[in-house]
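Record 1 of the preview.
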Amino acid sequence: MKSWIVLFIAFLTGYNTYACSVYKITKNNRTFVGNNEDYWDPNTRMWFEKGKNGNFGNVYVGFDNLYPQGGMNEKGLVFDGFSVDPREMKSGSKKLIPGNDILKHIMQTCKNIDEVYTILEKYDLTTFLYSGMWMFIDAAGDYLVVEGDALTKGKEDNYLLSNFCPSQTPDLDQVAIPFYQKGRKMMDEKTDTTLSYLSALSDALHQSFPYDLGGTQYTTIYDLKEKVIHLYYYHDYSKSITIHLMDELNKEDSVLNIPDLFPDNLSSRKNIQKVNDVKDFLKELSNPLLSNDYSKIKAEISFRDLSFVLSLFENDLNALGYELLNQTDKTAAINIFKLNVEYFPNSWNVYDSLGDGYLAEGNYESAILNYKQSLKLNPTNQNAITQIEKLTKK
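->
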């Protein structure tokens, strides 16, 4: 089982854990946008929010935390988000700092990409989009790519984007994303706006992760003129559900559990069970009666056969460790941080967190050792640099 974990993590590291693709095609004054959401967590949702106080109503798609990963408003403005490799960017120091509600504010108030541009040019996005990117497309077919330090408008009838920054990519032939190049070739050969073509293009761009643990969790194909969404699930393009946005916005606000809309997809059911077993276990670990005993934690992981899927939960384990640390359960927090180090030995952040745990406990020697290991993996980790300087003086 350990070799499976190593192979799968190697795949995700070399791939991009948050891969996705967005294309737009405009013909005969109609624009269609397709999005594949590629990830390992199958807990996907679609939800509808009516417009209030003069704002526009929206449909959003994402995961069970209900943070929008994409969506469309009643004026036919579509957006989607991408993960990209982090890079250094010069801060716009005189600009505003965006809040976490900036996306919803745009979708509730903007009709087209010019209005989106007017809002976003006021903000410093270098920290907010340090390792991310947005794309907006309006009903006229115009689009805006939003990087942390660049706002790029475009009007091409056909456009495809994936997990790379256009402003940093002068030669698209050099983009080392196989499914992007496959979709690009298909669009160069032919484009049309029939649903059969659009679903085939989405299929060409779809991902299937090793061991059937994730991939394209859902596909949305938006008709920006008619405000219609064609929803596909778990990289199966033989079945879809058609949703009329304006009909849904005439109802009460609602949340749809996407897996429940496709009960016959047995492959996804197995995926959901594996992931949710780990999520349930993480809730149990928030109880110090379990997390205070490291050997008991390891025994439970082995008994429940959670090791393979747990290797996907670095951020969740890290957050849980700090939650326990803030509750002054130092031993429990350190155990969670140690578990994260065991599963993610090449992550600078897990050593930094373990250093914080030992620092809170007063074990300065162990704290310094872990901060130094973090610095080996990330020499720019300022927290580790600062803490080592303080502890060395002590």
